Amino acid sequence: MTDAANDDAARAAALLREHRESIDRLDAILVYTLGERFKHTQAVGKLKAEHDLPPSDPAREALQIARLEDLAKKADLDPEFAKAFLNFIIEEVIRHHKKHQE
Ligand SMILES: O=C(O)C(=O)C[C@]1(C(=O)O)C=C[C@@H](O)C=C1
After folding, report:
1. What is the pLDDT of residues 88-101, one digit of tens each?
2. Does ligand 1 come within 6 angstroms of the Cβ of 72?
3. Per the count of CB atoms within 10 A, which of 4, 58, 66, 96 is most buried?
4. Which Pfam families does the UniProt entry name for this protein (predicted)?
5. Is residue 41 within 6 Å of ligand 1 at its C-beta?
């Protein structure tokens, strides 16, 4: 390899390392944020079970989806992806809520 090609490869490796450090930091934020969200939804599940409330609330979900799609657009994130992601999380929450009610 020439010196120029070596320099180029070293620059690319450094950039890749920097991006991966940011990705790891953001993944940790996502995991801690989800953990915190689940603490609240577990409390909501308990409350719903104690008061005989239905596990899911489609009207609330519609509001959340609309809000998230709007946020996603502002954050330069694909709104369809944001919607699918929230639905995925909510499905899991509803599964937990149903367990509380068993
Ligand atoms: O807000 C509620 O009623 C919840 O149970 C929480 C939550 C959510 O994960 O955001 C989950 C299920 C409902 O259908 C709506 C929202």
Report:
1. 999 999 999 999 88
2. no
3. 96
4. CM_2 (PF01817)
5. yes
DSSP output for 55-76: S--HHHHHHHHHHHHHHHHHTT
CATH superfamily of the domain spanning 3-101: Chorismate mutase (1.20.59.10)
CA torsion sign, 13 to 15 to 19 to 25? positive
Q: How many A from CA of 25 to the centre of ligand 1? A: 27
Distance of CA 22 from the midpoint of ligand 1 (Å): 30
Q: Residues 21-67: pLDDT tens digits? A: 999 999 999 999 999 999 999 999 999 999 999 999 999 999 999 99
Q: Which residue has the tokens 């790891």?
A: 24
pLDDT of residue 18: 98
ipTM over 0.85: yes
